[in-house]
Amino acid sequence: MPKTSSQNCTTTVRISGMTCASCELLLERKLKAMPGVQSVDVNHKTGIGCITATAGKEPSIESLSSAIEKAGYSVLEGDETNALSLSPDKRKWMEIGASLLVIFALYKLMQTFDLVSLTPSTSDVLSVGGIFLIGLVAGTSSCLAVTGGLLLALAAKHNAIHRAETPAQKFKPLLQFNISRLISYFVLGGFVGVLGQSITLSTRTTGYMNVIIALVMLYLGLSILGFIPKGSFPIKPPKKLSRWIVGLSDSEHPAAPLALGALTFFLPCGFTQSLQLAALASGNFATGAVIMFVFALGTLPSLLGISALSSVAKGRSLTLFLRFSGTLVLVLALFNLNSGLALSGFDLSRAFDSGTQQAAPAPVIKGNVQEVSMKVTSYGYEPRDLTIKAGIPVRWKVDGTDAFGCTSIMTIPSLNISQPLRAGENIIEFTAPQKGQLAFMCSMGMVRGNFTVL
Amino acid sequence: MQTIVSIPGIHCASCSALIKDVSSEFPDIKNVDVDIDTKQVTLDHDESFDMQTWTQEIEALDEKYKIHSVS
After folding, report:
1. Better-predicted residue by pLDDT, A384 or A259
2. pTM
3. A249 touching B, CB under 8 A?
């Protein structure tokens, strides 16, 4: 379709309500059918329709408006035009910037009120109520980063494709996601109990998985925000690519949300992992199943909240919702990427602040063992920088009283050490093979610390 | 007579409006029903309906509209 340059337009109209290339086609057909109109070029991204008409036979703005409104769109006029005179691109960036600010402010607010680290320690509350509470907390904190992010991406993608659906229709796949999550937690929790062996993946695999999830979320975030083509563009993506994308949206199979929901059992979420350990320790189907089911039930309110919110949004608020969730998905993706890289051996944040850290003095060597101690707090590890000597066995005393979520498992990925923490003192013994830096972290790689090996 | 075809490129309400709009130019078509979820179009038409022309018109809209017959 040839794009006429805007100078050739005899009339330009601002049209709102267009979402995709099909809207362009529809409006172009409708407008071209009007008497006097020679050619029409509508762009759904800028919202501008350019109409070229024969001189002297230009259709009136009123007749254009009524044709556009008949097709289900609306024309922006007068003050409205001024209010929206920012180009859509600028608006988009402003909305993304505002979303970032809101996300940052919310995070700070939650941190101030200690909500980010609202910490029922997993070690002593294993009553059904306690597990529900853990689920509730997990649903609003670290698990939300992964499971919520996935759900949000699923919802936003679905909404972007099926804008016209009713709230109930939009809610359906999300409900399937949640129901399938509950069922799979029940069944898999039971199996963990029976097998007596954790389905939890090794630290390094968890890291790779985190990276993969982060990349998928990154892609979804970018496509929700419209940085990655998903339809008709002035520059058309290669046919193969567009066909593949159409194929992808075709695969909006009812089974997709079901599968995703079930897969969250294996997602690297600290709370999930620590409760999988509890289910494992229970050693029987019923207890294991109940533990995981109650936990999933606890995470339900916040996940359902996200689902409901994303279903009722429409029109302008839907666009805002897409912007906000796209930005949030991106932030979470970067967060997961960093954690994943840390777990699989590359610590990005370390690479940036390595110059500023203060190495603690080397520990005293008693006999042929060196002892270092550390405390797990709700804010991280204290101290987070420890110094040890290479080649000499280390007795690492870790106070796990305040451990929660992912910090209830201590890992040193490069030495393949992964140890669950109990309340009170835990001893981890290892020997650093060589001089340099040795990173340690929680099972999700979200909380990190470092040994300087001399 | 009824003909059901599948058009995988259908993804939103405007696709449906577009297809209905094109179909309205065919006097032989009495009723068009577009299901966005199943991506199927049901046509109620007379015996004299020229399916080939209709297919050409729809496919000419955009390359994403490829018509597959459903038996």
Report:
1. A384
2. 0.42
3. yes
